[in-house]
Design brief:
single chain, 197 residues, mainly alpha, 2 domains, 9 helices, globular
Length: 197
């Protein structure tokens, strides 16, 4: 059915991007095909959060951190998978589109997507990306400050990790908050953050 084809394309592209198969994503990505998918299935269907139009994300500058469109972000990651800006922008794409729980549970073996995965590795987790960038002295100051801001906000407002990855103790979150305020106090992120969770 058109709905299943649309979902299959969405899942393929998102899994390629979240599992580091950037060349595959760029090869399989078609803005025209994604737009046609949503046009061919006028109703949201069984998976309303997984609309093809999500993959047409044009970027943005949420909280003052500018990001290009998703295809450009994946292109940057294909050129350098450790690029801090591209890693943070991909995290923003996941966050803005509420995709953090995309791989939180697997479908039953007899359902679409329930077979053995062709995508090795752990599910993508923004929280792990933020921790990696915070801990890397190679991360530019602006990127490290934004990673601190986002890592702290992973636990807002209810003290629950919404970014995936291994939970971080409250003492570590306080240390991140203190680091953001002390080392990057002039940034809008440090100025706007009044609490840690």
């Amino acid at each position: 059915s058109a709905e299943e084809r649309k979902l299959a394309r969405f899942v393929l592209l998102l899994k390629e991007a979240t599992h580091g198969q950037y060349a595959g994503f760029l090869r399989d990505y078609s803005a025209e095909g994604l737009a046609k998918d949503d046009a061919d299935t006028a109703r949201p269907g069984q998976y309303p959060n997984y609309q093809s139009s999500v993959l047409l994300w044009s970027g943005g500058s949420d909280k003052g951190y500018a990001c290009p469109d998703i295809k450009s972000i994946v292109g940057e990651l294909a050129a350098n998978p450790q690029d801090p800006h591209a890693m943070l922008c991909f995290g923003d794409f996941i966050r803005v589109n509420s995709l953090d729980g995309f791989e939180a549970s697997r479908p039953a073996p007899d359902e679409l997507g329930g077979g053995k995965s062709i995508f090795p590795g752990e599910p993508y987790a923004r929280g792990e990306v933020y921790k990696k960038l915070i801990g890397s002295s190679a991360s530019p100051a602006r990127d490290r400050a934004y990673a601190l801001y986002r890592a702290i906000n992973c636990y807002a407002p209810a003290n629950n990790n919404t970014c995936g990855g291994k939970d971080v103790e409250k003492a570590q979150r306080k240390a991140w908050y203190d680091q953001l305020k002390a080392q990057f106090g002039a940034t809008t992120w440090a100025k706007s953050l009044r609490f840690y969770w």
